[in-house]
Structure to design on (640 residues):
């Protein structure tokens, strides 16, 4: 147990170091001045430039520069944006929760809808209802997310006028930014009508969430269905049937648990797709998330922002992936054995 | 295949023939294959087949609706866009750009991924374990992020976006190849060849690679659908192919300006991407279930 924890911690730290090294080397790879790329401050005269050089230890060898860079990162000095001049840490602190919030709701929908539907289809495999669910998931899995979001905007926002076009919340509500998660912020806010604000926020949420969730749900259905069918063919299900257990007993005691086990590591891969889709959809709905922020940064060639944004997004995604992997290792020790045998 | 044969069979169908039989038995998969072949031919012969030059602008026919609408004309089957360019020709050439570059980058990613994956799978020890785990973790970085970084370093363009997607796809191939080579290396037939004195190179080319091709085809079809979506997404976000190059995502982004008065300019390219991805997914799915059925018989 402790051994696994140590191993995963080492893996996590190693990956973060690789990512930090990548983000550090970007300062050199990007066009323009290394000092400006690293700090986000354009020096006005030679004296200021020399001072900055000393502050970022750019006159030292690369390895010391990198060590200094990492220590600055850990202290929270992430540099400044070219465009807004604000500290990048603040900007990311606002943008990142918005994306995580959007992805979390989409993932929630994918789990709540996808797993039961997948189980249903798997249990009635190769019947008519399975056929319909499977085809529907195949179709919705093939939608390019940006086009789907456009179609939603065209139908629900422009034609029918049910859902708002862009943003997170109507400007009429003044919600102070505390956690960065809009629903939590509304509940925490003091002097507004929370139920009205919540309703408005949900209206803003629904289109982007559904356009991301549709694709994740489809892949969830397919994964669950395949896994359930595989479990159904295994000998212990036949054994359970021969012992005279009822269908629901077999399903809850034997099928569900064993079918969900192999899905978990695949979910780690799903998170990447989910984040990518969330980042694309954000730009269409002007959702103030990290995807929108990064795309704006690349349009304006805001190199310090890109350097840190890349590190932040990659760190979040990699942490989630490793956490899921670790969790999976704990609840499924058979996998650990296999790994130990091969490594 | 019939369970009992009256005649003594002279020839046993090869694994590939049996897979093909199983694949053909599914009508949906076969339809998907036909659509995919159609896309393939469009991609190959688009410049010859397309009725107009996709870049030619014509002020006389701005925003002509598609031919099935009451005021559309048959001379422009899918109508024209805001610059009077023929949408049908643009979509055809767009298929060539999107589909062709996707196939190319999947092949490159496969080549690199299989090479690295085989080396990782055949070696063992702490170093390979560290490399493997770090690669697995890096696999999680979204394509969009890699694309943004590459665009920032090298500038935007179709080739640069292709590199970004190739980079993002490589870890998957490495992962699957490594797992496959690992599990194969433990089997008896490998041990037998090894006892015969086969070198690792011979082992790979004569024993492992023939068995791996099926896995590669299935993984390749998955990667292809991801590549098509990603390349058009990057084109759409103005990070990949640049206008006026008719890439499907770029055509879609162009049509966005007139989406309200000329919805066919966004609907048709999007529908084409959707159909292309759907066909790839259906064929991939059919292939997987055909392989599964063959193995279970």
């Amino acid at each position: 147990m402790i051994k696994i924890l140590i191993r995963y911690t080492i893996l996590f730290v190693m990956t973060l170091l690789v990512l930090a090294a990548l983000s550090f080397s970007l300062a050199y790879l990007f066009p323009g001045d290394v000092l400006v790329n690293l700090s986000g401050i354009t020096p006005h005269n030679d004296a200021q430039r020399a001072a900055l050089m000393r502050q970022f230890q750019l006159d030292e060898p690369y390895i010391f520069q990198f060590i200094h860079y990492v220590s600055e990162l850990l202290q929270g000095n992430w540099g400044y944006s070219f465009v807004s001049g604000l500290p990048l840490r603040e900007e990311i602190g606002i943008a990142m929760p918005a994306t995580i919030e959007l992805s979390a709701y989409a993932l929630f929908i994918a789990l709540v809808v996808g797993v039961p539907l997948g189980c249903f289809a798997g249990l009635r495999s190769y019947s008519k209802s399975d056929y319909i669910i499977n085809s529907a998931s195949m179709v919705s899995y093939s939608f390019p997310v940006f086009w789907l979001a456009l179609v939603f905007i065209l139908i629900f926002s422009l034609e029918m006028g049910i859902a708002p076009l862009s943003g997170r919340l109507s400007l009429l509500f003044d919600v102070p930014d505390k956690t960065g998660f809009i629903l939590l912020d509304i509940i925490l806010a003091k002097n507004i009508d929370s139920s009205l604000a919540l309703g408005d926020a949900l209206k803003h949420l629904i289109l982007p969430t559904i356009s991301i969730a549709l694709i994740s749900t489809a892949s969830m259905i397919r994964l669950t269905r395949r896994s359930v069918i595989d479990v159904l063919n295994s000998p212990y299900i036949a054994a359970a049937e021969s012992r005279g257990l009822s269908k629901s007993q077999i399903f809850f005691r034997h099928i569900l648990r064993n079918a969900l086990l192999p899905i978990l590591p695949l979910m780690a891969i799903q998170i990447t797709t989910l984040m990518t889709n969330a980042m694309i959809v954000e730009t269409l709905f002007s959702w103030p998330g990290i995807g929108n922020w990064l795309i704006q940064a690349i349009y304006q060639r805001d190199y310090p922002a890109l350097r840190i944004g890349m590190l932040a997004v990659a760190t979040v995604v990699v942490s989630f992936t490793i956490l899921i992997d670790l969790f999976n290792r704990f609840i499924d020790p058979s996998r650990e054995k296999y790994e130990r045998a091969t490594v | 295949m019939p369970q009992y044969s009256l005649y003594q069979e002279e020839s046993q169908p090869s694994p590939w023939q049996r897979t093909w039989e199983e694949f053909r038995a599914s009508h949906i998969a076969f339809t998907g294959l036909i659509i995919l072949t159609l896309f393939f031919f469009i991609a190959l012969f688009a410049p010859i087949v397309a009725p107009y030059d996709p870049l030619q602008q014509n002020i006389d026919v701005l925003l002509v609706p598609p031919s099935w609408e009451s005021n559309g004309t048959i001379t422009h089957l899918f109508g024209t866009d805001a610059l009077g360019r023929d949408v049908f020709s643009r979509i055809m050439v767009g298929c060539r750009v999107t589909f062709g570059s996707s196939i190319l980058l999947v092949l490159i990613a496969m080549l690199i991924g299989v090479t690295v994956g085989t080396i990782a799978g055949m070696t063992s020890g702490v170093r390979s374990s560290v490399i493997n785990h770090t690669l697995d973790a890096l696999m999680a970085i979204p394509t969009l992020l890699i694309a943004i970084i590459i665009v920032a370093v090298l500038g935007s363009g179709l080739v640069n976006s292709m590199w970004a997607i190739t980079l993002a796809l490589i870890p998957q191939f490495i992962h699957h190849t490594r797992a496959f080579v690992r599990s194969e290396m433990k089997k008896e037939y490998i041990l037998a060849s090894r006892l015969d004195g086969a070198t690792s190179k011979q082992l790979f080319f004569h024993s492992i690679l023939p068995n791996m091709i099926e896995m590669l085809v299935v993984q390749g079809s998955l990667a292809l659908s991801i590549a098509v979506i990603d390349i058009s997404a990057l084109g759409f976000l103005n990070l990949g192919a640049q206008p006026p190059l008719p890439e499907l995502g770029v055509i879609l982004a162009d049509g966005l300006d007139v989406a309200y008065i000329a919805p066919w300019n966004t609907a048709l390219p999007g529908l084409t991407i959707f159909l292309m991805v759907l066909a790839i997914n259906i064929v991939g799915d059919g292939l997987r279930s055909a392989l599964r059925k063959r193995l279970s018989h």
Remarks:
- The two ends of chain A are 17 Å apart (CA to CA).
- Chain A has 15 helices and no strands.
